[in-house]
Design goal:
370 residues, mainly alpha, elongated, ABC_transporter_sub-D, transmembrane helix, long-chain fatty acid transmembrane transporter activity, ABC1_TM_dom
Length: 370
């Protein structure tokens, strides 16, 4: 299971100075045991409140997801169970063969990804606003500007590299839905399967569906058998490497370079004329803030990974809503192929046959029924 964003230390609220090793740091350096004990005691007293804040934030994210899923589920079921829409989707329209997968798993993942994206964006943006303000007052606008330029570059580059993620997510969820549908069909018709002793045939059907999931068909004009899940896994591993390099390590390098620029400037209005000890203190404080700023920017750039994944789930949910609206308006689409011949049937909204014609074709064609 994917860890929740608020379970990750880099995204959790840094209400405690112990997260940065700063409890009594000055007291230890100055060998002041009394101040050190006092700060340790204050930190121990603050522990329950820190833990409460962290879990209240998690509760807010979970509650947001639950409410979002509740409203979306009510909306979808209002359309799905309107009249005979559920019957039309299964028998008159074949654009969606696994409505149960869309209404349950895909909706849940869609809502979870939306709420995770919210937490992955809001916390880094808050950190960025705080650190940019503090760095600007200490070092001027040049240092944060350099970091933000890198943010734009990294964001555009990673967005370009992540483009296949949305399409791969759509294919994966569609194949998962088909595999789930065949399993549920066996459960529903288990009595008939047992009566006709069709367990071996059903086993072949289930394994064929699973192989279709693992080895999906893809390609343009020529259909090529590829290993979808493994290809997706290899793609995610490669993107994970690029994410770490661009959004974490290079961001840290850029941050150190940006903070060094004003210190190498002998005519800097805020740093020139300071003693070496004071310059070291300024560098230490500014360096820590700039590293935190680089980490916040890295997390914001990495949130694009969830955004591309969200695009796949959005496509699935949008397709379901579109089909439900078409069915409620009396528009159906059905594909029929018989030995290279596509049979096209046109009906009116009441289902009466208007005309029938045959088109010889080697490709699958959509038939819209009005």
């Amino acid at each position: 299971m994917r860890p929740h964003p608020l379970d990750q230390p880099v995204l959790g609220p840094k209400c405690s100075p112990a997260t940065d090793g700063e409890v009594g740091q000055g007291a230890i350096v100055n060998m002041n045991a009394k101040v050190f004990r006092r700060k340790i005691l204050l930190f121990a007293l603050a522990m329950p409140f820190i833990a409460m804040v962290n879990n209240v934030l998690k509760y807010g994210i979970w509650e947001l997801k639950l409410r979002f899923r509740t409203r979306l589920t009510h909306y979808l079921y209002d359309h799905y169970l309107k009249g005979f829409t559920y019957y039309k989707m299964s028998n008159l329209d074949n654009r969606i063969a696994n409505a149960d997968q869309l209404l349950t798993t895909d909706v849940d993942k869609f809502c979870e990804t939306v709420t995770d994206l919210y937490s992955n964006i809001s916390k880094p943006m808050l950190d960025m606003s705080i650190y940019v303000y503090r760095l600007t007052t200490r070092l001027g606008w040049a240092t944060p500007s350099l970091v933000f330029l890198y943010l734009l570059f990294a964001g555009f580059l990673l967005t370009y590299l992540r483009r296949p993620t949305g399409r791969m997510t759509v294919v994966e969820q569609k194949l998962e839905g088909e595999f789930r549908y065949i399993n549920s069909r066996l459960i529903t018709n288990s009595e008939e399967v047992a009566f006709y002793q069709g367990n071996h045939r059903e086993k072949l059907t289930l394994l064929a569906s699973f192989e279709k999931l693992v080895r999906s068909l893809s390609g343009g004009m020529f259909w090529v058998q590829t290993n979808h899940l493994r290809k997706f896994l290899e793609f995610r591993v490669g993107m994970g490497v690029m994410d770490n390099i661009i959004a974490k390590y290079l961001a840290t390098v850029v941050g150190y370079y940006a903070v060094s620029v004003p210190f190498f400037n002998r005519n800097h209005p805020l740093l020139s004329g300071l003693a070496q000890e004071e310059r070291f203190r300024q560098y230490y404080t500014s360096g820590r803030m700039l590293v935190k700023l680089a980490e916040a920017i890295g997390r914001l750039v990495l949130s694009g990974r969830e955004m591309t994944r969200l695009a796949g789930f959005t496509t699935r949910v949008t397709e379901l809503i579109k089909v439900l609206n078409d069915l409620n308006q009396g528009h159906y689409e059905r594909t029929m192929i018989t030995n290279g011949t596509v049979s096209s049937i046109i009906t009116d909204k009441s289902g009466l046959l208007v005309s029938t014609y045959w088109i010889y074709s080697h490709q699958v064609s959509r038939v819209r029924l009005y």
